[in-house]
Amino acid sequence: MDYRKFDGSIYVRFNRGDEIIKGIMEICKKENILSATYSGIGCCSEATIASYIPEKNDFLEHRKKGVLELVSLNGNISADDNDQIYHHTHALFSYHNEDYKLDSIGGHVISTTVLYTAEIEIRPVKNGVIRRKKDEITGITVWSLS
139 in helix, strand or coil? Predict the structure, then answer.
């Protein structure tokens, strides 16, 4: 992983074997970023994606391995009241199935490992911090913008 700061944004190149979410979190901790958005593209070798199941108040995880084109990765960083940071990341991957037909998988990203490269832009929030709070109706953690 290598990154540079340009004009308020951080540009990250992930290399083969790098775990993207772990890398984003490391950069945010190192650079003292409590709130940010990020997006990117690349190619991964494996991904763990989750879907929220409201009836169970839990996530169902899906693991996929192979040549996974990272079509789109979008996410954000927010902090709790103790400045502990958390990510909320979604992605869409395309791949060829057993019949060599194009297929896809997407959802909430738990982890994903780079196969060739991934290019991510991190955009820190300026002049403020986006906090997290538990939504009493859904039971999930959401942005607190107050």
Answer: coil
Residue 74 and residue 72: Cα distance in Å, rounded? 7
- Residue 141 backbone zone (phi > 0: left; psi -120 to 50: alpha; other: beta): beta
Q: Give the residue-averaged pLDDT of 76-100.
A: 94
Percentage with pLDDT > 70 across the chain: 100
82-87 long-range contacts, CB within 8 A, separation 24+ = 83/34, 85/25, 85/28, 85/29, 85/33, 85/34, 86/132, 86/141, 87/21, 87/24, 87/25
Say what the pTM is. 0.92
146 has pLDDT over 80:
no
Positive or negative, the CA dihedral 39, 41, 43, 48 is positive
Q: Tally DSSP H helices, then E strands, for the chain.
A: 1, 8
Q: How many Cβ atoms from other residues are within 10 Å of residue 118's Cβ?
A: 24
The pLDDT of residue 56 is 82
CA–CA dist 122, 120 (Å, integer): 6
Q: Higher pLDDT residue, 138 or 142? A: 142
